[in-house]
């Protein structure tokens, strides 16, 4: 299976590939949950915040600058969703 960069996956999403985002969720899901858990100290709240963060990130993909790493951008969204 071909491993794609985060930037390639984002470009596929922006080009209309609705299924491409799943790869980012699989790649970052655990880390996003852990960021949310460190902030909320509540597993249920962390799951809700992680889901919210992925929704926010998907809606804001057009604002992501592929010149920078995707992870820190997503983790900032996660932090904001968890506070």
Task: Tag the structure with descriptive keywords.
83 residues, elongated, 71% helix, 0% strand, single chain, mainly alpha
Please give a quick description of this structure.
This protein has 83 residues and is mainly alpha-helical.
Care to describe what's here?
With 83 residues, the chain is mainly alpha-helical. 71% of the residues lie in helices and 0% in strands. The protein contains 4 helices and no strands. It has helices at 6-14, 21-40, 43-59, 70-82. The termini are far apart. The mean pLDDT is 96.
Radius of gyration from the CA trace?
A: 13 Å
Question: What's the shape?
Answer: elongated
Helical amount among residues, as a percent range?
over 70%
Number of strands: 0
Give the CA-CA distance, first to last residue: 37 Å
Structural class: mainly alpha
- Stretches where pLDDT is under 50 for at least 5 consecutive residues are none
- Overall mean pLDDT stands at 96
Per DSSP, the total helix count is: 4
How much of the sequence lies in strands comes to under 5%
User: What is the ordering of alpha helices and beta strands?
Assistant: HHHH
Largest sheet: none
Write the layout of secondary structure elements.
Blueprint: H1 6-14, H2 21-40, H3 43-59, H4 70-82
Helix pairs in contact: 2-3, 2-4, 3-4
